[in-house]
Amino acid sequence: MQFELTETQRDIQKAAREFAEKEFDPDLALDLDRDGKFPKTIFENACKLGFVGINYPEEYGGQSLGLFESVLVIEEFCRKDSGIGISISLADMASSLIFRHGDEKQKLHFVVPVTQGKVTNTVAVTDSFNVRTRAERQGSDYVVNGRKAFVLSGPMESIIVTFCQLPSDSDSEASGAVMLIVKRDQKGVILSERKRMMGVRMSSFHEVSFDQVRIPKDLRIGQEGKAGEYLTSFFTEQRIKTAAQALGIAQGAFERAVRHAKEREQFGRKIGQFQGIQFMLSETLTQIEAARSLVYRAALSCDAGSMESERLSSMARLFAADMAVRTTLDSIQIHGGVGLMKEYSIERMFRDAKTIQNLGETGLVQRALIGRSITT
Q1: Straight-line distance from the first to the last Cα atom of the chain, in angstroms, rounded to the nearest whole number
Q2: Which residues sit opposite 127 in a β-bridge?
Q3: What is the pLDDT of residues 187-237, one digit of tens each?
Q4: Contact call for residues 206 and 194 (beta carbons, < 8 A)
Q5: Domain 228-375 = CATH 1.10.238.10
Q6: Residues 6 or more apart from 100 whose CB is under 8 A from it?
Q7: What is the 3-state secondary structure (H, E, C) of 92-135?
């Protein structure tokens, strides 16, 4: 399979690269990472130029393109700066669920403001310490109780799309689970103190508790009992986006290592002339190109609606995330002592790569999913 970019795709890639070079100021990135602040102005500017929600139809603020084009943007953003790139690519997590499974009113009300740069949104899927989050029907409403872990939230967050279990003896339309749109400032929604993460510090993660939160029926996404199916397609897309983040980080770390190897002198020679450094760089470049082929194939497969897309998404996320950790570590090694300094971006790229490797679905989960797809 060949990945020859079309003229439109090359233009998008170039535009994303030029935007990142202009907007992603290194000193600002250091401050944002240190202070744990979301790059609000950069996000707003990215929305104005159509980079956020590029794969949504034009009537919802997108450009009617595909996940593949979104991957190109994410890769370029994370190549320039891992923290800013990741935080922007996570800003519309819930939009894909609403776009694919919500009604017209929900799409206009909750997706469009994100693509316009006015708000961000998120999802809450993982239950906290086996405390299930349940939704019980009371009249025309749902009443939600429970707790979710590792929920992304920030100053621009407007809604949290929440995965809830229905009572097993429910008389509702269907048993199983339901996906509900919960407003961030709604009564009974309680955010814990921010988690102190190793990386991805421009995005904040919290535990979220739901105490008798009443949600009207018109804020349900799709049908009751279908939430598990909705999550499957959501995770497929998110794995590919995470793989694109990892790919961009690795490319950026590699380029920084090459530049340093060509500039740094030791024992009267540029260190890039030493065979040991050349071996490290050649191995890294090979791994990056292999990851890029896998990530691009997974994105194209998802856009085509292929049955292979779910397995390919796990393969791409597994390989790219592991590769990004190795690449950033090698880049630190090539940089020597300066690679450990916070004034340089390399140590932050490693922290971000290691965080996305384990955040959400770990590599062990990906291996289990891939293995199950092979043997069943």
Answers
A1: 26
A2: 148
A3: 999 999 999 999 999 999 999 999 999 999 999 999 998 999 999 999 999
A4: yes
A5: no
A6: 230, 233
A7: ECCHHHHHHHCCHHHHHHHHHHHHCCCCEEEEECCEECCECCEE
CA angle 293, 339, 75 (to 5 degrees): 25
Of 161, 145, 35, 23, residue with least CA distance to 99: 161
Tokens found for residue 309:
């897309």
Mean pLDDT, the chain, integer: 94
Whether residue 171 has pLDDT greater than 50: no
- Contact criterion met (CB below 8 Å) for 307 and 301: no
- Residue 117 and residue 48 in contact, taking contact as beta carbons nearer than 8 Å: yes
Interval 112-136 mean pLDDT: 90
Instruction: Say whether pLDDT at 138 is over 60.
Output: yes
pTM value is 0.94
Question: Domain coordinates of the chain in residue numbers?
Answer: 7-115, 121-224, 228-375
Structure confidence by residue, pLDDT tens digits, 305-336: 999 999 999 999 999 999 999 999 999 999 99
Least Cα distance to 291 among 258, 261, 327 occurs for 327
Distance CA 165, CA 176 (A): 6
Q: Residue 348 in contact with residue 335, Cβ under 8 Å?
A: no
Which residue is it, tokens 């992603």?
24
What's domain 121-224's superfamily in CATH?
A: Butyryl-CoA Dehydrogenase, subunit A, domain 2 (2.40.110.10)
Query: Residue 247 contacts by C-beta under 8 Å, 6 or more apart in sequence?
Result: 75, 78, 288, 291, 292, 295, 320, 324
